[in-house]
């Protein structure tokens, strides 16, 4: 079956090349293009790029291009002419220019054509504004106790029970998914949430597959999962719409439904709301779970940092009654823990870079980026640059002690920058700090796999999902959580 699919894929590719060669001859070539090669028509450098991602060597793949062509070069990825950029100046250009975020065409087909990343103009501003308003600190303050309860319930049900072995990554994914469903979609435990979780995993499985829509291919399965995921969210949207006015808008979908124009009409269509919700679910699900997984891995091999974190959290716990939930003010005292998170993000960024698209001809470093070309910027290279971060391979949370760092602007861009900064940064921070508070106080652990390797799918995945041998600290009482959730 694999040989048949490969043959069909090659046939489709060959046909596309012929069509591309005929049409390309009629198109003038823009002047002042960056150095490099677009490679074979349609295929370009896509296969090499995908193989490098899966082999966790994408940084080396990009460095090879930098060594050959410089920090600005052209290539062809996913059938589209692409300009590759790297460095702090390039990062700043990406975040403060007219370049627009985008997803590869194949990924758009999976997650929905009208997702939040694909919106431009007024709709993009409105949706991003709604997200930012829902996720701003003043609103999140009201949800800290709820997140605290979800975290304690999750740990009590999945991590406790004396000495045991657990696999960290899937458990962290489940935790972040439960928090997102409860707070963003108003969706509690049950069959709908379980079905949504299953479809989300199937969606991810095919996002880096060769985009051939044929039976039995990973891409076809991912397309189907994306369609079913949107159907479930359409159902949730209809139910939330029916309840508008009867209860406060305490979830993202209800807030998007409540947005109206000057005539009182719903501002966004249900399709736009659903597709934007899928994008938000994807953006907030795996990134935070990946961060917390690699924090657990780091702390297993870093007793000094772990000891300091335990001390920080025990000081906070001294001022809490038994079973009392964390409050917003408690999170502001977790400065070391957040520095550990930032340093983890620097060394193992969940997203090594992303795509943008030029909506007009634009120049950078003397080169022209033509309208319609995509831009791939590689943030992870900047964060491991020894000229910016001394001994970049060394784990050193003290790098983030001072906000007025001597580093060039846009050197550390784990959450973006400027008007392109991730609206979910505070949400991710709350999830991470609350979870680590209970983990380091209630458990000790050691790695089952001594080899600290990981692959990218495209997010980093540690060896075997990071199995650990877990032990509940006997001196601490079991969790007390609200069992009505």
UniProtKB/TrEMBL annotation:
Where is heme annotated to bind?
422
Q: Where is the signal peptide?
A: 1-16
Know the name of this protein?
Cytochrome P450
- According to its UniProt record, which cofactors does this protein need? heme
According to its UniProt entry, the protein's GO biological process terms are:
sterol metabolic process
Taking the record's annotation, the residue ranges forming a coiled coil are: none
**One function term, GO molecular function aspect:** oxidoreductase activity, acting on paired donors, with incorporation or reduction of molecular oxygen
CDD domains, alphabetized: CYP90-like (cd11043)
Query: Taxonomic lineage per UniProt?
Result: Eukaryota, Viridiplantae, Streptophyta, Embryophyta, Tracheophyta
Q: Which family is annotated?
A: Belongs to the cytochrome P450 family.
What PROSITE patterns does this protein map onto?
CYTOCHROME_P450
Q: Which UniProt keywords apply?
A: Heme, Iron, Membrane, Metal-binding, Monooxygenase, Oxidoreductase, Signal, Transmembrane, Transmembrane helix
Instruction: Give the matching InterPro entries.
Output: Cyt_P450, Cyt_P450_CS, Cyt_P450_E_grp-I, Cyt_P450_sf
Pathway terms, separated by semicolons: Plant hormone biosynthesis; Hormone biosynthesis
The answer on whether this UniProt entry bears the keyword Membrane reads yes
């Amino acid at each position: 079956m694999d040989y048949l699919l490969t043959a069909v894929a090659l046939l489709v590719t060959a046909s596309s090349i012929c069509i591309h060669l005929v049409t390309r001859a009629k198109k003038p070539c823009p002047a002042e293009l960056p150095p490099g090669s677009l490679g074979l028509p349609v295929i370009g450098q896509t296969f090499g790029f995908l193989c490098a991602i899966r082999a966790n060597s994408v940084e080396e793949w990009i460095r090879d291009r930098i060594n050959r062509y410089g920090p600005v070069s052209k290539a062809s990825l996913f059938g589209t002419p692409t300009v590759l950029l790297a460095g702090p100046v390039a990062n700043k250009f990406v975040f403060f220019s007219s370049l627009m975020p985008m997803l590869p065409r194949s990924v758009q087909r999976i997650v929905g054509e009208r997702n939040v990343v694909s919106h431009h103009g007024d709709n993009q501003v409105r949706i991003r504004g709604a997200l930012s308003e829902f996720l701003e600190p003043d609103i999140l303050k009201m949800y800290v106790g709820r997140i605290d309860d979800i975290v304690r319930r999750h740990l009590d049900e999945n991590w406790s029970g004396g000495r045991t072995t657990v696999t960290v990554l899937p458990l962290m994914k489940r935790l972040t998914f439960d928090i997102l469903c409860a707070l963003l979609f108003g969706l509690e435990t049950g069959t709908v949430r379980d079905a949504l979780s299953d479809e989300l995993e199937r969606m991810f499985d095919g996002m880096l597959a060769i985009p051939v829509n044929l039976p039995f291919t990973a891409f076809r399965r991912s397309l189907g999962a994306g369609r079913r995921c949107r159907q479930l969210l359409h159902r949730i949207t209809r139910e939330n719409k029916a309840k508008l006015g009867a209860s406060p808008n305490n979830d993202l979908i209800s807030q998007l439904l409540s947005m109206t124009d000057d005539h009182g009409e719903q501002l966004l269509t249900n399709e736009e709301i659903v597709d934007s919700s899928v994008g938000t679910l994807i953006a907030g699900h795996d990134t935070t779970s990946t961060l917390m997984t690699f924090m657990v891995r780091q702390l297993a091999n870093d007793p000094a940092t772990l000891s300091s974190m335990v001390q920080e959290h025990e000081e906070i716990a001294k001022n809490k009654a038994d079973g009392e939930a964390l409050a917003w003010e408690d999170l502001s005292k977790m400065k070391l823990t957040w520095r550990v998170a930032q340093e983890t993000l620097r060394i193992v960024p969940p997203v090594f870079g992303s795509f943008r698209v030029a909506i007009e001809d634009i120049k950078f470093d003397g080169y022209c980026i033509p309208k319609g070309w995509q831009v791939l910027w590689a943030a992870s290279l900047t964060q491991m640059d020894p000229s910016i971060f001394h001994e970049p391979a060394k784990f050193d949370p003290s790098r983030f002690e001072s906000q007025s760092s001597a580093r060039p602007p846009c050197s550390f861009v784990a959450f973006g920058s400027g008007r392109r900064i991730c609206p979910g940064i505070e949400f991710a921070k709350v999830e991470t700090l609350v979870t680590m508070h209970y983990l380091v106080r209630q458990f000790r652990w050691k790695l089952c796999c001594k080899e600290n390797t990981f692959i990218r799918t495209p997010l980093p995945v540690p060896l075997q999902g990071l199995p650990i041998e877990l032990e509940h600290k006997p001196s601490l009482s079991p969790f007390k959580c609200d069992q009505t959730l």
